[in-house]
Amino acid sequence: MRTTSSTRTRARPASSRRTGSINTGSGPAKRTAAPRPPRGLTGRATVLIVVFVALALAYTYPLRVYLAQESQIAQLEAEQAEQRRAIADTSEELQKWKDPEYLRAQAREKLFYVRPGETPLLVLNDPAGAAREAGKNAPAAAPDRWYETLWSSVRAADAESPN
Prior knowledge:
mainly alpha, elongated, 163 residues
C-alpha cells in the first residue's frame, strides 16, 4: 500500500493542514493570537466568593457564643478552685481546734487562762502611771500650734497698747 502525499493531507483535519504557501523568506510569519480568558471575576468565582462570605457570616455568631461559654467555664472553674482552697483551709483550722494543746494555748493567749498553781502576770501599757510610779512627771505637753502662738502674741500686744 502506497500512500501519496494527497492521502496524507486528506487524513489531517482542516485546521492542522499546511497551506501551500510556505514562508519563503519574504518576511516573518504572521502570528495569530490565542483567545484569552476574560479578565476580572467570572460568574463562578463571584458565586464562590458569595458562598464563602455567607458561610463566614453564618459561623460568626456560634463561634462568638462558643468563646463566651469557654471563658465562663474557665471563670467558674477558677471560682470552684478558690472555694476548694477555702474549704481545705477551714478544715485544717478545724483540725487544729480539735487538738487539746492548741485549744489550751489559744485559751491562755486570748482569754488569759492560767493553770492551777501559776501566777498570772498581766502587763498594761500605761506610760502616765508608770511615770508617776517612777517619780517622774508625765510627758511634756505638745507645743502650741504656730497660729495659736501668733494669736496669743497679737492679744498680748493689744493688751499692752495704751489706747
